[in-house]
Amino acid sequence: MGGKQEEDEVYGKPAKYDPSFRGPIKNRSCTDVICCVLFLLFILGYIVVGIVAWVYGDPRQVLYPRNSTGAYCGIGENKDKPYLLYFNIFSCILTTNIITAIQNGLQCPTPQVCVSSCPEAAWAVQNDQYLLTVGEVFYTQNRNFCLPGVPWDMQVLESLQQELCPSFLLPSTPALGRCIPWTNLTSSDLPGIDNTSISQAINGLLDSLNARDISVKIFEDFAQSWYWILIALGIALVLSLLFILLLRLVAGPLVLVLILGVLGVLAYGIYHCWEEYRLLRDKGASISQLGFTTNLSAYKSVQETWLAALIVLAVLEGILLLMLIFLRQRIRIAIALLEEASKAVGQMMSTMFYPLVTFVLLLICIAYWAMTALYLATSGQPQYIFWASNTSWPGCEDVSVNTSCDPMAQPLNSSCPGLMCVFQGYSSTGLAQRSLFNLQIYGVLGLFWTLNWVLALGQCVLAGAFASFYWAFHKPRDIPTFPLSSAFIRTLRYHTGSLAFGSLILTLVQIARIILEYIDHKLRGAQNPIIRCIMCCFKCCLWCLEKFIKFLNRNAYIMIAIYGKNFCVSAKNAFMLLMRNIVRVVVLDKVTDLLLFFGKLLVVGGVGVLSFFFFSGRIKGLGKDFESPHLNYYWLPIMTTILGAYVIASGFFSVFGMCVDTLFLCFLEDLERNDGSLDRPYYMSKALLKILGKKNEAPPAGKKRKK
């Protein structure tokens, strides 16, 4: 008894009986007000950052290509000219790689003009056309590909020397707003143009931008299969819901099957290791003959490897059997809590669809951050510099290249052939541009904090709803009429600060992990094993810390939802309560994880297999209305369906997991508060009372509670 008392003192004193306690406290006050004010001020600053980004940013720089004069193609004066044509597409390939070109907005050191349509046929200026006018060669032949303002009567030779008109055209296809040439061109299509240059330039560009054809096919596949994907996701939703509702009937047998399955797998592993060990032992294959080698696969051919694996599996099998023998009572409690959680979900079906609210809020947070980051990244005015393809040409020696210029004031004639004003980048002057990095960091912090706050809100709201179920003395009569909406309003009104406090702690740890990952990425080339070991240890510690904080926050939110106290007190009470029942916590956690993993496997695997057989056309005889669509990539809707089914199953099972955790904490509190007497009856179900060997002196149906 003395040891038990000392343990209680270490992990806090058990909760005492309170005759006025009827579940989630109604009369509560605001908690963590300082953190609430800081969170609201931070959100206000986040909104200000969004306004600054909206004022200074210009996402058209990403969405629309620019021509040589800096005007956007597809809007404004170029509304009817949505595509950008490069005069010399080879300069884009010969001067830079395609990845760098994309990062710079696909800008190339060659004149660019907005066109209404891309060239459909190969063409090049012939020798007898140099002395003709631009109007005769280009305009009258419907080749409107010269820069704006080129005179009709200018000679073609002069326009080519000043790079005002293209010397050749390639049959192109629009992609990413640019005219991208075809790949099946030969030198016969373009007289005077080297065939090697054509293949190197066009193939190099289209090998990297061939995503257009793929994207079109992907769009076609989605257009033909979207309704079947929705049907498959509907099946996943129904399966997830049925699995949770059926747990009240099959939770015990299902857990038993899962446990026996784990034991069976370990037993088979032991048998397989023994057979391999016996075979290699008879052959005399020993590790002494192999010696030390870095080829790990070679160790499969020695008997000691299989002997070690056999010993490990046998130890695991023995530990699991001993745990089943000595913890069978607690496993029965875990099963009863799972059944009780299924009943709670059945009584409050609205909780199953609360993840939709969380999903919408998360989508809003992500969309706001993405738009803010996009606008910030495109803030600043475009800058242009003089550029010439060859500064050694006559007349180009005195030209100051790489100096600022105005593309709208560029002269049509110049002493330097090919001199042009090209886009360089965006200015970094101005308050918003100078603080761009800090504003982006603020946005990332806002993203993580808001996301974690939304997740915390969902956990606290669900905990409040399920706690009202457990502490209802007469079920379902005493359950509030709208438990979910009441918990939602109560949480927002009183505990925004507590949720912000817990989510801020988690956010700081996650930001630290991101910084550490960035440092590790930068130091990846370092061969110092000590540094790599230290980084690995730091990453492991932060990962464990994040997991612990998530676990602590989750239980703290449950206590906040029930008692309405601040975050620190709730986290302390939850942690002490769990430590006083650590064995039950471990058993329930592992049984729940195993069951939910099996549920996800069942839903995702079942929907995935069904989708595979349907979209691959392996299911015959369904009739014309149920025929599988003809797809370019039948694996695309399959992967979409599997991903969607996983998201749906995770959403449903997260609600169920929160229900189990809430009922478990309420169950532990019930054991400490009450003793089953007439004045202090238990609130737990009859199944739990039966397992514990306890009973209420007065049945709930006839019990009259004290006012």
From TrEMBL:
It is a multi-pass membrane protein. It comes from the Eukaryota. The chain crosses the membrane at residues 33-56, 226-247, 254-271, 306-327, 353-377, 453-473, 494-516, 556-579, 591-615, 635-668. InterPro entries: Choline_transptr-like (IPR007603). It is found in: Apical cell membrane; Cell membrane; Membrane. The keyword Secreted does not apply. Its main location: membrane. Signal peptide: none annotated. It catalyses: thiamine diphosphate(out) = thiamine diphosphate(in); choline(out) + n H(+)(in) = choline(in) + n H(+)(out). Keywords: Antiport, Cell membrane, Glycoprotein, Membrane, Transmembrane, Transmembrane helix, Transport. Choline transporter that plays a role in the choline-acetylcholine system and is required to the efferent innervation of hair cells in the olivocochlear bundle for the maintenance of physiological function of outer hair cells and the protection of hair cells from acoustic injury. Also described as a thiamine pyrophosphate transporter in colon, may mediate the absorption of microbiota-generated thiamine pyrophosphate and contribute to host thiamine (vitamin B1) homeostasis. Belongs to the CTL (choline transporter-like) family. This is Choline transporter-like protein. It comes from Galeopterus variegatus (Malayan flying lemur).
